[in-house]
Amino acid sequence: MLLITCPYCGPRxxxxxxxxxxxxxxxxxxxxxxxxxxxxxxxxxxxxxxxRWVHAHGCRRWFTVRRDTLTHEILDTTELEEPPRGxx
Amino acid sequence: MTEPAFQNPEFxxxxxxxxxxxxxxxxxxxxxxxxxxxxxAKNHDVKSIAVLERGWLGNGNAVRNTTxxxxxxxxxxxxxxxxxxxxxxxSLSAELEYDVLFDQRGLLQLAxxxxxxxxxxxxxxxxxxxxxxxxxxxxxEVQEFCPIVNVSRSIRYPVLGALLQRRGGIARHDLVMFxxxxxxxxKGVDLLQGCEVTGFDIRKNRVVGVETSRxxxxxxxxxxxxxxxxxxxxxxxxxDLPIQSTPLQALVSDGLEPVLNAVVMSGLLHVYVxxxxxxxxxxxxxxxxxxxxxxxxxxxxxxxxIQAALExxxxxxxxxxxxxxxxxxxxxxxxSPIIGRTPVESLFVNCGWGxxxxxxxxxxxxxxxxxxxxxxxxxxxxxxxxxxxxxxxLIDEHGAAAVAH
Lengths: 88, 405
Ligand SMILES: Cc1cc2nc3c(=O)[nH]c(=O)nc-3n(C[C@H](O)[C@H](O)[C@H](O)COP(=O)(O)OP(=O)(O)OC[C@H]3O[C@@H](n4cnc5c(N)ncnc54)[C@H](O)[C@@H]3O)c2cc1C
Ligand SMILES: [Zn+2]
Description:
Chain A is mostly beta strands. Chain A has one helix at residues 32-40; strands at 3-6, 10-13, 18-21, 48-54, 62-68, 74-79. In chain A, the strands form two sheets. In chain A, strands 3-4-5-6 form a four-stranded antiparallel beta sheet, with no helix packed on it. In chain A, strands 1-2 form a two-stranded antiparallel ribbon.
């Protein structure tokens, strides 16, 4: 189980959170290719990864987590300042 | 030289040194890579084939899965695919002259809500129209078919009935691995263990070879079969795929006397159980939905699945947990595989089987071999192209595939 530090509430168990994956910006205008990228393509890297989590059973706020996908180590968590358009 | 860890009895397969060039190079020595190599050698006029495996054969999901085999999917594109796979399973031991202990003990998918009942009944009709065996069982019939299921109305999510596929079942995944490796090797396929692909030689947007930990190998065509590590492979070739890799766990209990005569799955309560021949109860559940290559999952998923198992099968309260493990599964947005061309000429991909690719082992190899031999998809995998994420012709199998295997 991950121990995730909500930037607003502090460290809490993973079960309090929901995963939001990589944040991507909704394109203003889109041909099929760009739209497809926005809807379906997310990176799946091995190593440090920037992703979103929401403190679903807490303050309910979204924030940014940097986590190593090879070790599950959480590198840091930060407030979400300017959410990209169309973010969850 | 092959390192000691990768040595194996020569009566199973040869351990040749890599040649400098092959007609077809398959990346990934899991079940899909081996099955593809076998059918390439058997059904097509391709003479020189190699399977490149970074570790030892079958170190990935090939031998981490819970071995559930069924063909009762829902979509018009999926049903013939999985049904051909099941038919191939039915003759696989004879074909490979190696008993893979395929056991059609029947597979129950429990329904706990009105929606699940409706969905299951819809699947029964859809399957029957496609010539796939499917039955609907009322709770009392579920109890009769599988006596340890708790059909009491007083549990949190009572069993309202179940979808039964009598031809569904399990096989021994390690034996399938041995059988395919042996048969492919006997047909002249070079199985190269400890041979990690680290890059691709791409000229004018055409792949002409691979770079590996055992040197450069030229290739006429390259087929990726890397399951959970496919996004990393594709990146090396400059290709993005709509695939995310996440952990999926399984567990096994110590050996018990025979108590469970079927495979029983519950999508809503998130547990599926079967009893292996040595008496161990093999269970799986939901996946962790975060990206990971750690081959390790969260503890709470195991807790939830054991809670669900105890509610559905109170008798399992006496079992002891022996082992847990995880594999990394390649999940696509519509829970269906991607098999076919990539934006790079002569480079093909077969991935996205996610949580349910073991059952597809024979058919995955069969159609991918066709695709690699002809440079064109087989009729059965035409719809499973990468381009469907642009055209919108998705093959949504979330109901049938995302959790349940
Ligand atoms: C816990 C669990 C339970 C499951 N239960 C079921 C089930 O009940 N029924 C079902 O149908 N499916 C199930 N699955 C899914 C099924 O196991 C997979 O879909 C299927 O095994 C994937 O195909 P594979 O065997 O070829 O994969 P793998 O065995 O993972 O093969 C991929 C291979 O590629 C190799 N590779 C990767 N990168 C490189 C590289 N750079 N160079 C060389 N080699 C490389 C890897 O080492 C690996 O051996 C389950 C999976 C898991 C993890
Ligand atoms: Zn919070």
